[in-house]
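Help needed: design a sequence for this.
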């Protein structure tokens, strides 16, 4: 089953991305996911302050600068893994470097649309 590991980080957590130790920790984490054969993809995201939100209203695009949610933590990135069950997904999520300082959300994905 595929799971998305959504990584939410504070502003300080987002700033920590400049730290070589942070980069090394994530490189090691992704390498471990890959070597275990569970890695399916993912990416870090730039700051939510650069986000653009789109809504459709009466068939027209309504575009707004900024993120959809105004929260203390922001979505910093995501990983897509394939493991047998939620317990395994949670084990991998707990190993995520941001788990110590941020919030990790684990959700099963829907099957691909054919």
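Sure. Designed sequence:
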């Amino acid at each position: 089953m595929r799971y998305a590991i959504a990584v939410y980080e504070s502003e300080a957590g987002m700033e920590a991305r400049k730290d070589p130790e942070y980069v090394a920790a994530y490189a090691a984490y992704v390498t471990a996911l890959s070597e275990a054969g569970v890695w399916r993809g993912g990416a870090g995201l730039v700051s939510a302050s650069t986000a653009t939100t789109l809504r459709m209203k009466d068939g027209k695009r309504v575009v707004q600068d900024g993120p959809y949610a105004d929260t203390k933590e922001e979505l910093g990135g995501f990983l897509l893994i394939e493991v047998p069950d939620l317990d395994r997904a949670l084990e991998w999520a707990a190993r995520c470097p941001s788990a110590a300082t941020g919030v990790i959300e684990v959700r099963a994905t829907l099957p691909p649309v054919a």
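The chain has one domain: 2-108.
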